[in-house]
Amino acid sequence: MALTYKDVIRFEQQFYILASSSRVDDRTRVLKQGETFTVLDRFGEAAPVGLGELGLYHRGTRYLSRLALTFGRDRPLLLSSNVNEDNTILAVDLTNPDLSTDDDVAIRRSTIHVSRELVVREGVLYERMRVGNYGLERAQVQLVLHVDADFVDLFEVRGFRRARRGDMLPPEIDRHGLTLGYQGLDGVTRRLAVRVTPAPTATDHEGITFDLKLPARSEVIYEIDYTCRTEGERIEVGQFESALEDSTEELAAERVNDCGIESGNEQFNEWIRRSYADLHLMITETAYGPYPYAGVPWFNTPFGRDGIITALQTLWVNPAVAKGVLRFLAAMQATTVNDAQDAQPGKILHESRMGEVPALGEVPFARYYGSADATPLFVILAGAYFDRTDDRDLIEEIWTNIEAALAWMEHYGDRDGDGFVEYWRQTPKGLTQQGWKDSWDSVFHADGKLAQGPIALCEVQGYVYAARRAAARLARARGDERRADELVTLADSLRERFEKAFWDDELRTYALALDGEKRPCRVVTSNPGHCLYSGIASPRRARRVMRTLFARESFSGWGIRTVAATAARYNPMAYHNGSVWPHDNAMIAAGFARYGFRHGAKRVLDALFDASLLFEDHRLPELFCGFARRPGEGPTLYPVACSPQSWAAAAPFMLLQATLGLTVSTSHRRVTIHRPSLPERIDDLRVRNLRVGDDCLDLVFLKHPNDVGIHVERRTGKLELRVTK
Q: What is the pLDDT of residues 86-119, one digit of tens each?
């Protein structure tokens, strides 16, 4: 069946997913491990409907494009469908409709039970299918497993139209299944092998048939593996049970160093558990350590900005993620000028893609550097990681990368020498907008006209300021006082220029950006909240920014909108022009806390916690619509948001840290809690296994009428707990 792309639009070689029927009408189930993931419907099936995103993907290519199980020609009835709490297994329960022969009901509805269990592991989707007869008589049943593979690149699924494709190979069929293949234009042969044990009744190019004669109260079990074979890659296929055990053991090992968080509110606990589970789902082990891939289905790949922000959000609960991110991005840092990649020496990766389309250069994203903020954020993360861990060895390992990033900000990033970091794309295939709001229409003036570049975003200047301050701390730790003083001077000079160029007294906030003619984009947005996160904002103006962000035009009741309702391009259903993003809100809340506005941080946490209660599985999506909160109604889904998504899953941890006022310093062997608060519906909170070097701390927070009490439940080593109120 051919895919349709009516839900995707193309603008200047960039692709945007339109709201249609995909995620609103059909709930999906996601499994992922490493470079392999599957998106299925609640039946455990895939078909080219809605956006056509359903299927089994490996290394940027969809292998399995159709998967359906039928009783003859009849679709089964759905009983239940759930991914377990740790995201390792999808369990689907089905039963038969009335099955008739010659106008008579041969098998009555709900007699045959089909249990499907699915696990993803290293290039393979494993399935264990149990078929049981709960009738009083023997049942003769035919099940048909329909499979197909289209081998389309993920960019094709998103809407990229290619002038030509490679060739499908003839199917290979034997008694245990079939193999479908494709010879790509990149010279790589990709195959999907479907194997069934024990052997099915028959197999042809359209599917696999099981003719079953089930005695009363009996059951038969089949194991099916769907293996993605890419030329040159070794995939070892095991059995369902061993794959499940490996996934469970791997997850347990990853979670050993997680900080335990539990409250007296079970809904809050479910939110935290879901967030942890989604984080571990999205983390992929690379040659440099763990890296949180951005989101499923569209962004299951390393993104620089996303990985860094996810690492910052989770730094206090598990700094191992930050170490993996820093080492990976240091290894991928640009070393030469390459206009086709928007790359210059010292610049940090925007994204890296596998698959046929990137490999052929049809899109520039095989390794692409088109973001203005990933480079300063890299340095910010290095400083924050060192503060958290005192890991001097890693800082020495990546110090030349840090210096290269600082040099990029000062030279290549500041195109016109005015002291601000701007962006502009060198390749017409690249991103027009290169901040975190990278939709083509996300930077505009008060009248709605799009800003022309080079563009200096307000939050990017804040990141550069914070990066220089962070690098100064690192330089001092290395004994280089002269370099530290130089960086502090550069940071202070930037802060002074920033206040003069970006503050807008009438808007009561900082301008979104300066365009190529240095005209401010006088629009109220969430971006200035990141200026509080970085510390570039003056304390007096920081309070005014907070008030502006909590005005009804910006605060929906579920969170802070990306763009205020008064803006010319405001649209609560737009990707970046009026929606609510959890990670954006978490960074803003951390900014509020930085300036001592703990009540502001708590208010944002409470809003997003309330929203999480109304999302399936308490999972915060990448974003949701910015409609105002209405009594008795929940937040409105954005139809094609990635879910799960790393920085959305990590948002609760930064929100909680901001509300508790908690920081960790391994070099000082100290945990500091400053003016703590607790969420509205949380009276007690326990933080266990908070690691500080080789030691750890267990804390209990108790809400009192006008205060929050803190009790040390367990302490190892000579850790200091410092509380200020």
A: 999 999 999 999 998 766 678 999 999 999 999 9
Burial of 344: CB neighbours in 10 Å, binned 0-12, 13-18, 19+: buried
| Whole-number Cα distances in Å, 327 to 392, 394, 401 | 14, 8, 10
**Where do we find the tokens 């290395």?**
478
What confidence tens digit (pLDDT) does each residue in 664-677 have?
999 999 999 999 99
Q: Is there a contact between 392 and 304 (Cβ–Cβ < 8 Å)?
A: no
Read off the pLDDT of each residue in 544-566 and give the average, rounded to a whole number. Answer: 98
Mean pLDDT across the stretch 559-586? 98
420 phi and psi, to 5 degrees?
Answer: -105, 150
Strand order in the sheet with 61-64: 28-33, 36-41, 55-58, 61-64
Helix (H, G, I), strand (E, B) or coil at 390: coil
* pLDDT for 626: 97
State the average pLDDT for the chain: 93
Residue 249 tokens, joined: 């053991």
A 10 A CB-CB count for 124 gives: 24
Q: And the tokens for 505?
A: 């007294």
b/e 61-89 (16+ beta carbons within 10 angstroms → b): bbbbbbbbbebeeeebeeeebebeebbbb
Q: What are phi and psi of 438, to 5 degrees?
A: -100, 20
Q: What is the largest CA-CA distance in the chain?
A: 91
The predicted pLDDT at position 5 comes to 34
Query: Contact, 534 vs 459, CB < 8 A?
Result: yes
Please compute the mean of the pLDDT values over residues 646-656 and round it to a whole number: 98
Question: Would you list the DSSP string of 237-286?
Answer: ---HHHHHHHHHHHHHHHTTTPPEEEES-HHHHHHHHHHHHHHHHHEEEE
Strand (E) or helix (H) holding 384: helix 374-389
What are the C-alpha distances in Å from 300 to residues 39, 240, 568? Answer: 12, 24, 33
The answer on pLDDT for 14 being more than 70 is no
CA distances from 725 to 236, 661, 707 (A): 57, 10, 9
**Residue located via tokens 């990766």:** 349
What is the Cα Rg of the chain in Å? Answer: 27
pLDDT at 4 > cutoff 80: no
- Distance (Å, whole) CA 108 – CA 234: 46
What's the whole-number mean pLDDT along residues 404-418?
Answer: 96
C-alpha to C-alpha distance for 244 and 127, rounded to whole angstroms: 10
Alpha helices per DSSP H over 551-641: 582-594, 598-612
Q: Facing residues of 343 across strands? A: 338
Average of per-residue pLDDT across 192-202: 97
Tell whether the model's pLDDT for residue 18 goes beyond 90.
no
- Pull the structure tokens for residue 194: 């479907």
79 pLDDT higher than 60: yes
Residues 449 and 466: their CA atoms lie apart, in Å, by 31
